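Subject: Protein record for review, amino acid sequence with backbone structure tokens
Concerning: The relation between a protein's sequence and the shape of its backbone.
How to read it: Take the token row as a discrete description of the fold.
Enclosed: The protein record, placed directly beneath this head.
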Amino acid sequence: MKTFIALAAGLTMLAGAFQAGAAGPLEHNSRQAYQMILSQADTNKDGKLSAAECRAMWKDKDIAEKNCGFWDVDKDGFITEAEYVKQGSSFGKKK
């Protein structure tokens, strides 16, 4: 599962590298990656990823907390598609 998530995130970043400035395709790719993750990790099928569902994908608890915390932008315990897309579009951008 960890490899699956890394692949989905990687696809989002790769798409951004090739399509910088074209927000439409990057957003579309991020949404597709999120849906791929949900298909494997959303055990209760509510359409979002809970903190517990996210952490279950990682063996190392510290890595799980770090990664899941990154994607949960509003810190409400759920990772929504909007949050995933927002964070995915931030890769490669200077703050």
About this structure: DSSP finds five helices and two strands in the chain.
